């Protein structure tokens, strides 16, 4: 059986921006993807000289007070804050602040 | 790579003195009309007129000399410019140069080549040898000059170890729980009051990190009003 075929010729294209943008719910397209988040309890400043002198068992003060929230980081950006809790022998964070 | 090294007056005088002492001894041994000399920083035009090259026993070029060298030497050594003295003059001159360049053996070669010895920062030196009204010029290879510069007498301050140079550099460290995977949907729906459960056991030390690189584990606690940690292990 003979099948006749033709080459596909692609048309030349250029952007012609018109009003209208992607649906605001575009993140719904990727909502099954899992991303790596980090819970940051606090921070501390050390010079390299102090870092060099660190010893096992040494106590270091963090910059944050005990009543300050912890940060939830996504790609080094704070996307939420919360209070550090425990849940079934594991740490958990109860959200106190999210981006509106 | 070529050395960039400015030669100061003291160093120039040192070369002048060394060459003078060598020539003075040579004059006493061989010269009918003694040679005098002057060592200076050359200017560009001298390079064009050099045709005789002085090599050491390993073929390294030490200097190049203007083309009237034999006549000049014949007059200094024998009081005549006749070419019949060329061979003997050259031999005696090589004795002088081997002492001046502090090498076992020197050879004079006529080579048709250009040398790239004069460039900004070159250590090339020009030696003018005089005998009565005549003179010859000799360009010294900058590599040889560089290797024979007087040793530095000034003691420089000690070099600081890199660690000490970095000592005052400040770092911001983070105390973190183990990172966790969360679906984007859960983050999109996150609301105040929600709880994110982690896999990080309460009894496990937390991670002390700099820019996501953990260097120690530490146990969370408090000191007065602040959170604090005790270092448990270095990673």
Summarize it:
The complex is a heterodimer of chains A (100) and B (235). With 100 residues, chain A is mainly β.
Helix and strand arrangement:
The complex is a heterodimer of chains A (100) and B (235).
Chain A: E1 34-47, H1 48-52, E2 59-65, E3 70-74, E4 77-87, E5 90-98
Antiparallel strand pairs in A: 1-3, 3-4, 4-5
Chain B: H1 9-30, E1 36-40, E2 50-56, E3 61-66, H2 69-78, H3 86-100, E4 106-110, E5 125-131, E6 134-140, H4 142-147, H5 162-165, E7 170-176, E8 180-183, H6 184-188, E9 195-201, E10 206-210, E11 213-223, E12 226-234
Antiparallel strand pairs in B: 1-5, 2-3, 2-4, 3-6, 5-6, 7-10, 10-11, 11-12
Helix pairs in contact in B: 1-3, 2-3
The residue-averaged pLDDT of chain B reads 91
N- to C-terminal separation of chain A? 64 Å
Strand order in the sheet with the most strands of chain A: 1-3-4-5
CA radius of gyration of chain B is 36 Å
Q: Tell me the fraction of residues in β-strands of chain B, as a range.
A: 25-35%
Find the count of extended strands of chain B (DSSP E, 2+ residues). 12
Q: Strand content of the residues of chain A, in percent?
A: over 45%
Based on the coordinates given, report the CATH architecture of the largest domain in chain B.
3-Layer(aba) Sandwich
Sheet of most strands of chain A: 4 strands, antiparallel
Number of strands of chain A: 5
The total domain count of chain B is 2
Helix content of chain A: under 10%
By CATH reckoning, the class of the largest domain in chain B would read: Alpha Beta
DSSP helical segment count of chain B? 6
CATH topology of the largest domain in chain B: Chemotaxis protein chec
Largest contact between chains: A-B, 58 and 54 residues
What is the C-alpha radius of gyration of chain A, as a whole number of Å? 26 Å
